[in-house]
Design goal:
The chain is α+β, with helices and mostly antiparallel strands. The protein has five helices and nine strands, in the order E-H-E-E-E-E-H-E-E-H-H-H-E-E. 25% of the residues lie in helices and 39% in strands. Strands 1, 2, 3, 4, 5, 6, 7, 8 and 9 form a nine-stranded antiparallel beta sheet that branches. The longest helix has 15 residues, at 113-127.
Length: 177
């Protein structure tokens, strides 16, 4: 379990309003549930000239690791080959509800066949017909993983952040692994 702390500088505790005294950090199991359920993530990588590159991806949280994929010639794969540090972000586009999450870590390419099969199973369980049906948007992704037509990356969190907004109560939680 990571170390969990509430950052009062960015939580309702610093801006008193009804309920602010009750601001507490988001428990890691709740954040994990959101990581498991989120359908879209945004991966941020660094271009060779230092500019950011941000794109949406599908991803699966499995055994404490966030997995995503890309084509070997896509910009994010090229960026990660030079600088493996990245962040994956997911959440809600709402000012007053939800939990936004950021996972920071180092992307490592997955090549072990047994791990790839676990990732494929995690993707299939999560995305269902999008992966398993011939009409699915990502049908064939498992074979793409197996053959290298898609590169799979594993990001084990170094640090994660959660920005909660429930009923006017704002929280900023940091998890350190």
């Amino acid at each position: 379990m990571p170390t969990t702390e509430l950052d009062p500088r960015y939580s309702s505790a610093i801006h008193p309003r009804p309920g602010a005294e009750n601001a507490t950090p988001t428990p890691w199991p709740e954040a994990e549930r959101h990581l498991k359920d989120a359908e879209i993530f945004w991966v941020s990588t660094v271009r060779p000239d230092g500019r950011p590159h941000v794109t949406p991806v599908i991803a699966a949280w499995h055994d404490g690791v966030l997995y995503f994929s890309t084509g070997p010639e896509e910009q994010k794969a090229k960026n990660l080959a030079r600088n493996a540090h990245c962040a994956l972000t997911t959440g809600r586009n709402s000012l007053t509800e939800g939990l936004d999450l950021i996972v920071e870590g180092t992307a490592e390419q997955v090549t072990d066949p047994a791990t790839l099969e676990e990732v494929i199973a995690a993707y299939e369980a999560k995305y269902g017909a999008h992966i398993t049906s011939p009409e699915g948007t990502f049908h064939g992704i498992g074979d793409a993983f197996r053959t290298g037509r898609a590169v799979v990356f594993a990001v084990e969190p170094d640090t994660a952040y959660g920005f909660g907004r429930e009923g006017g109560l704002f929280t900023h939680t940091r998890w350190t692994f």
